[in-house]
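This part of the workshop introduces the protein records we will be handling. An example says more than a description, so a record of this kind follows:
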Amino acid sequence: MNPHPLHEVISYREWRACLRCRTGARFHLPYEIILFHGVTKGRKTMIDKEKIITAVRMLLEGIGENPEREGLIETPDRVARMCEEIFSGIGEDPGVHLSKQFTAPDSELVIEKDIVFYSTCEHHMLPFFGKAHIAYIPNGKVAGLSKLPRTVEVFARRLQIQEQMTVQIADAIDCFLSPKGLMVVIEAEHTCMTMRGVKKPGVKTVTTATRGLFKDDLERQRLFLETVRG
């Protein structure tokens, strides 16, 4: 059986791992399809700096600026180098981080909260930033403590929407750790609605994703949210 055509950008090992941890469960469409979008056998997508430099020069000219003036002459190159950093998650495999696991047969609940992230809205290419909170009930294995923040970074450092990012983080953890239960909460401020458009600074968007024992257990969800806000 071959992978679905829309999954052909991921490795066969990752595709099989996702199938194993979703036996009897529905895929979370449409976000499931792009969970590992851009991953090609462990190689990250390369940034084309020359195209970015050319595009930034055209943008500066398009808004009526002079790209040759002192303050802007190095801006295209700066932006290209910045893109290498803030979009470094494109094509990165979360399994590189989540595959580092330790046996913990008696662990009941793991919570990592206040994971600060910065991402870029794919609609206006403006930043959104905030905190991610993750809780999972191990199924005999736990990830290294730094691996959950690194997983958040994988999906934050690319063009995103918050709703999609929340589901992608949850599905990656679910796929590689196969926990008994899982909940991801993200709260963020979007500059696309604070510095432009409706111009409402301070407004936060909160998104959640639940899996396994957290899915329909409102009491378990409530306790996690209390811990996050405490």
